[in-house]
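User: Please predict the structure of the protein below. I'd like the answer in structure-token form so I can feed it into my own downstream comparison script.

Assistant: Understood. Taking the following sequence of 443 residues as input:
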Amino acid sequence: MCLFQGKTVLNKFKEIVEANPQIYNEDYLRLKEEIAQSPLRHGGLPIRFIYNPLFFSKQEINLLDSACNQLAVILDKVTQEYLKNKNFRQAFGFPQELEELILIDPGYGENFPMARFDIFYDFDTGSLKFCELNADGSSGMTKSLLLDEKLSQSKPIKIIRNDWQVTYLNPVDSWIEALLENYANFRGTGGKPTIAIMDVNCWKQGMITEFQEFQRKLKEQGYTAVICDPRELKFREEKLYFHDKPVDLIYRRAVTSDLLEIYAEIADLVEAVKKKAVCLVGAFRSQIIHNKKIFALLHNPQLTDFLGKEEQEFIKKFIPFTQIFTEKIKPEILKNRERWVLKPLDSYQSQGVYIGRDYTWETWQEIVNNIPSGEYLVQEFVEVPKLELVDFREGKLVKENYNQMIGLFMYNKKFSGFYTRVSPLNNVASGLGAVAVANLICN
């Protein structure tokens, strides 16, 4: 089997669908209805998806796993340097409250128990680039699992199974395993902790159904699990409580920026974490690698002289060149708009991202001239061949070329699942119409 067998299976899937679109449109409508009937929602609406899954061979999985593990080792070293080197900390520019939270020992050894590494991947050559790191309130695992389960039962896959074994990863169950593993390391024994799934304004979040799915899974395994806002947690008699329930373990979905906005209202939570009265997974130190400056810092050899030569070469090969926007580099950014992407330092869901090649020279000049120095990143644009995927719209077969953003879940530094979005636009963001696709493993 060749290394990049995933593209071969992808082409086979399209060939099958194109041979009899009427049958497969009916299959698509069946799956669409099943997914619409699922309790899982995004922003209160059924999950949007494309009929055509992506496929990865076992060799490709090993390639992705190896790259993620090498990056995880580098990020661990960066975290350790932050914890021990005051001068290095200054490069991140965190406020005092956040720095104090980061320096709290979480008590279980993992600096970033959950992370999602977003990559650009070339299905023809197997080359990849890391686009962004998300280690703060990472989401999408329940949505991804639902799509993988449903699309693995589509009619074209039943035909493909005549030649290939088709499976998928389970990023929900594997996260629960990792969550409990960290608690066991924290307490020295497993036990049956009461678990809080915590987010700011949790019942108003668009991902509440994802919280409820984790709650359901935990209850099936015999755990008491609650969904709560951090302001509802109270510390008394050396224990943290949600109403009358003592909480032993927190699965933190609240992003750090939201928590800092209500910092004065979460003193009980902070006190309980400091006194190790509760196990907080993930700890605030995950913000070190989540911070959008991280790629710019990794590309600065004066700051990262603690990394070895092979690690420096890995960064050059797998991470797009990134630097902090300043007036000094503005002429280069203006001159070569097709080469650069501008990203704000403090945002998520691709808000405020500008891709140079998406704008006329005049508009790009206006954008760049209005960017405040020191508040944006400048990143090299990575051009990846688009994938042609088949789908159905209003009963008709549609073939369209898509850019893809492939998210790789890392739990306790183990590659554990996918969350992939595709879009015809260069900016592959849910807020701009990006759609989820299933990810299947073929062998």
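That's the full token string. The first strand starts at residue 54 and ends at 57.
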